[in-house]
Amino acid sequence: AMPDFVAEIVTWPSGLVPVPAGTQVRIDVTVTNVGAGDAANRVWVGIPSTVGARTERALAAGEAETVTIDFPAVSSNVTYTISATVDPENVTPEDNESNNTSQEISFTTSP
C-alpha cells in the first residue's frame, strides 16, 4: 500500500480587504494522507514550490497536518491567485500523483 497526499488551503486573507504590499501573508494548508500506506518521511508543501514549509512528521495513512506558509506578497495593487502543492517534486511515490494541488485562492494587495 502507498501513501496519497492531498492539499487544501484552509486559511488565507479575505478577499474583502486588500493586503498591504510587501507583507508576508499567512496561508495555512492542510495536508492529508488519504492513501492506504504510511509515508516514509516528511513532505514539502509549496506555493509555488520554492516558497513553503515541510510537515513536522511523516504522515501515516489517514493522518492530516496543517502547515503554515508565509507567502511574500511583494507587488502592490495586484491580485495573487495561488494554489498549494504537496510533494511538488514527486519525491514520495503515491497511489495518485495527480491530486496533490489544492484549490486556487485569490487575494489583492493595496497600492
Overall geometry comes to elongated
End-to-end separation in angstroms reads: 50 Å
Instruction: Evaluate the radius of gyration.
Output: 15 Å
The strand count comes to: 8
Strand content bin: 35-45%
Strand order of the largest sheet: 1-2-5
Specify the helix fraction band: under 10%
Order of helices and strands: EEEEEEEE
Spans of at least 5 consecutive residues whose pLDDT stays below 50 are none
Give the overall average pLDDT.
94
Query: How would you sum up the major sheet?
Result: 3 strands, antiparallel
Structural class: mainly beta
In short:
This protein is mostly beta strands. It has no helices and eight strands.
What does this 3D model show about the protein?
The chain is mostly beta strands and 111 residues long. The chain is 0% helix and 40% strand. The protein has no helices and 8 strands. Strands 1-2-5 form a 3-stranded antiparallel sheet, with no helix packed on it. Strands 4-3-7 form a 3-stranded antiparallel sheet, with no helix packed on it. It has a two-stranded antiparallel ribbon with strand order 6-8. It is elongated, with a radius of gyration of 15 Å.
Question: Keywords, please?
Answer:
mainly beta, 111 residues, 3-stranded antiparallel β-sheet, 40% strand
